[in-house]
């Protein structure tokens, strides 16, 4: 049975996730001199429906240093756009299942990033595209971020938290919504992070205005993992309350699920979305907010960050910022994911 990397934050047990986290940190310590050849002659096809700096460059760099080959395909212009059966356009699209069967006959894995506009902003539609790739593919399919999950980012986040805080059980993490001038950000990062954090035993406080609640299914799964690990989850609608006494503050913006369409072709309720955002412009992490966290607490963000909106420059550039350590760990997390899927013996 082919092993995929679609929603491991949701489907992987807490124990297996912690084992993978340990292996990723160990693999990083051996990179690059003692990991060369791990993926020699392996080929991965990368399809980016959305812009990418960290994901694209870290995957390609890591795969190259491990001895593999990266082939980047443009799904919007360079090839016939992969589409589900109900969205096919003659001579403009090609059914996802056909694309997956062809690529999996050539190479060793398929990696896809898709969220937002390419899926019509219908929540879950992009993830269904990845599931369709996986159903037809004979090789692993890697989720490089969809509208529900960003498992590569979450593993890098967990690595960073472990490196900065040591043992994570009982440590306090605040995941906070913050204001941005753009609403075009999926809930994938906070949802994957929440699941990864409670699997690691962290006590998580979700701080967000009421309209920015996460997917109830994700919240239910997080609660179940928390029961398993002894972690605690708390929700507050007060940013200052959420940050107080936190060991780490992960503050970023995400869209309101209630304003997204439920059917393909229907529009986003942009007026309501923007109005909701504008009502909470004061949700910004500055030095005063960070001062509520514990001494030595760190600020995290997946990048790109909207400076002066989500967070002030003095926090991003200050001693409490862990954001560039996070960005560096994207390379190492994804190296571990690729090895886990294509050469698991290399992680032991």
From TrEMBL:
Lineage: Bacteria, Pseudomonadati, Pseudomonadota, Betaproteobacteria, Burkholderiales
All residue ranges annotated as the Aspartate/ornithine carbamoyltransferase carbamoyl-P binding domain in the record: 11-163
Family the entry assigns: Belongs to the aspartate/ornithine carbamoyltransferase superfamily.
Enzyme class: transferase
GO biological process: citrulline biosynthetic process; L-arginine biosynthetic process via ornithine
Keywords: Transferase
Function according to Swiss-Prot or TrEMBL: Reversibly catalyzes the transfer of the carbamoyl group from carbamoyl phosphate (CP) to the N(epsilon) atom of ornithine (ORN) to produce L-citrulline.
Domain Aspartate/ornithine carbamoyltransferase Asp/Orn-binding: 189-340
Keyword Transmembrane helix found: no
EC nos: 2.1.3.3
Keyword Transferase among record annotations: yes
Identification of the protein by name: Ornithine carbamoyltransferase
GO MF term list: amino acid binding; ornithine carbamoyltransferase activity
